[in-house]
Design a protein that fits this description.
This protein has 291 residues and is of the alpha/beta class. The protein has helices at 16-26, 48-61, 81-101, 118-135, 159-168, 181-186, 194-207, 241-250, 275-287, and strands at 6-9, 30-34, 64-69, 105-108, 142-146, 175-180, 213-218, 220-221, 232-233, 259-261. The protein is globular and about 50 Å long. Bound molecules: zinc ion (2 copies). Residues 146, 180, 217, 262 line the site of one zinc ion.
C-alpha cells in the first residue's frame, strides 16, 4: 500500500524556512504554512533570499508536499462589494506568493454569505474564482477549496456547496479540494461507525471525487457531530475518536494524499512532548492498527 504522508501546519515566524525546520523537528513529512500574517491584509514583498532559504530548507529536510493556507480575512462570498474586491485581490496575491515560493497549493475557505443568501454567496465565490483565474493565467499554483464546519453563514459545509462551485467555475482544472475531518464531522457527516464512514465517503466520491482531493486536514473535533462549530481537538481525544481516524488512515482511496494536523500547539502535560509529536505518533500507531 502507498505509504502515508503525515505532517502539520507550522508557524512561519522568523521566515518561511522556519516552518520547514519546525516541521522536521516534530517529525513531519509534509508541512502547511501561512504565506504572511493571516490576520492582516498586508503582504510584504518576498525577498529572493527568503525564497532561497525556503527552497534550501525543503531540500535539506527532505520535506515533501509543502502547501499554504490563505488568510482568514478573505471572504469571496461576501455581498459587500468592497470586501469582496479586497478579498479577490488578496487571494490573487496569495497565489502569486505561492508561485514565487514554488508552493503548488493554497487552501481557501469558500467564505461566508453574511447578510446575503446561500445562492448569492455561492455565485459570488464562483465569480471571484473566475476572476482570480483570469488574473493568474499561466500560474501553476492552484486553489484548494476546503470543506468547512458551517459556522454562522460560512459556505462549503455541505459537500453539495463545494460541488456547486466546482461545477460552475470556468476553469475547474485549476481547483482542487482540501478535506478536513473536524469540519466534515461538525457539519454533520459521521466518521466513526463503519456505516456512517461509508456514507460520508460515498458522498465525497460522488460530489467531489477522490482525484480532486489534494490535501487532507486531520483534526479531531471538540464539539459533537452536526454542531457546526469549528473547534479542533487532538487526535483521538475529541468527538470523532480514534476509530474514525483509524478508518481514514486505512482507506486506500485516501492513501497518497498528504495529511496535515491543525491541532492545538504546546506541550502535552504528561510527556512534556510537543503536541504535534504526540499527535503524529498517535496517527502512525492508528495506521498500524494500534491505539
Ligand atoms: Zn482545515
Ligand atoms: Zn477548522
Amino acid at each position: 500500500m502507498t505509504p502515508l504522508m503525515l505532517g502539520a501546519h507550522m508557524s512561519m515566524a522568523g521566515g518561511f524556512f522556519r516552518a520547514i525546520e519546525r516541521g522536521r523537528d516534530v517529525g513531519c513529512q509534509c508541512v502547511q504554512m501561512f504565506l504572511k500574517n493571516n490576520n492582516q491584509w498586508h503582504a510584504p514583498d518576498i525577498a529572493d533570499r527568503d525564497a532561497e532559504r525556503l527552497a534550501d530548507a525543503i531540500a535539506d529536510c527532505g520535506m515533501r508536499h509543502v502547501i499554504a493556507h490563505s488568510s482568514y480575512l478573505i471572504n469571496l462570498a461576501s455581498p459587500d462589494k468592497a470586501l469582496w474586491r479586497k478579498s479577490l485581490d488578496a487571494f490573487v496575491t496569495e497565489l502569486q506568493r505561492a508561485e514565487r515560493l514554488g508552493i503548488p497549493y493554497v487552501v481557501l475557505h469558500p467564505g461566508a454569505h453574511t447578510t446575503g443568501s446561500e445562492r448569492a454567496g455561492l455565485r459570488q465565490v464562483v465569480r471571484a474564482l473566475n476572476e482570480v483565474h483570469r488574473q493568474t493565467r499561466g500560474l501553476r499554483a492552484m486553489c484548494l477549496l476546503e470543506n468547512t464546519a458551517g459556522q454562522g453563514t460560512c459556505l462549503g459545509w455541505r459537500l453539495e456547496q463545494l460541488a456547486a462551485i466546482l461545477d460552475a467555475v470556468r476553469c475547474p482544472e485549476r481547483l482542487g479540494v482540501c478535506f478536513d475531518t473536524c469540519h466534515v464531522f461538525a457539519a454533520g457527516y459521521g466518521l466513526a461507525a463503519q456505516s456512517e464512514y461509508r456514507q460520508t465517503m460515498r458522498a465525497l466520491q460522488q460530489l467531489i471525487g477522490f482525484e480532486r482531493i489534494k490535501a487532507i486536514h486531520l483534526n479531531d473535533s471538540k464539539r459533537e457531530r452536526g454542531s457546526r462549530v469549528d473547534r479542533h481537538e487532538h487526535i483521538g481525544r475529541g468527538q470523532i475518536g480514534a476509530e474514525g481516524f483509524r478508518r481514514v488512515l486505512a482507506d486506500r482511496r485516501l492513501r497518497g494524499i498528504p495529511m496535515y494536523l491543525e491541532t492545538p500547539k504546546g506541550l502535552e502535560p504528561r510527556s512534556k512532548l510537543e503536541w504535534d509529536v504526540v499527535n503524529l505518533r498517535r496517527l502512525r500507531a492508528l495506521a498500524q492498527n494500534g491505539s
